[in-house]
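Researcher: Sequence of ATP synthase mitochondrial F1 complex assembly factor 2 follows. Predict its structure.
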Amino acid sequence: MSLPWSHAERNNTRLENERKKFYEDVSISHGEGGMFEINLDRRKLKTPGGKLFTAPNEALAIAVANEWDTQKDILKFYSMHMTTLCNTALDNPTFRSKDQMITAALKYLETDTICYRVEEPPSLVELQNNEWDPVLNWIEDRYNVVIGSSTSILGPEIPQATMDTFRQHLGSYNFWSLTGLEYVITQLKSVVLAFALIDKHITVEQAVLLSRLEEEFQIGHWGNVEWAHDVDLYELRSRTAAGALFVHFSSESSTVKRKLMQD
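Model: Prediction complete. Tokens:
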């Protein structure tokens, strides 16, 4: 049986994003302005845009260094999510401002995964109510906003006051943290789930399963007929976890006092 085109295409992309490992040792050094640099043997890591790769604190630098250190004979760049997020923050390839990033993130609230409800079958309706409503109620109480849900293809009408509250909240994040938070939102296709995850109200596993509730429901009824489902699930968990850690690490101001590598 041949692979579906989407997975074949993904495999081709992976091959294009692999390279033979060219270094032995990974280390961290102090850079200018309190930043941290990553060294591959004697070479300083650079971004795709050619900038010197720097992390704003030791915690994030350690996370990136570990990604490079755990690579085997072949560098699998597509698996190095922390490095990719740092590159995005450093290069800002689309030249976006914080306001533009916030606007893009808030668009997901208008089509939020857990705000769209089905009218049938009754078992899925019940599942959505049981699993999604507690998180929706939590965020409305937490931020004193109204979001609601709808079975309309247009989704619920989000009050302007809610949008203003979330815009102000997102504005409190620095550029690096906002880069990570927007990444989590795009992975889960949900502002609600992303906020709940970053606020540690739910775990990564819960956030991912809630974002895939209807798909998992269908699999439960019709069976998992394709191995790629498990791969997609694990990869989504990996990306979501990396994004959440990136938000917390890029907000970290204290120095992590521990060795980078264990002997």
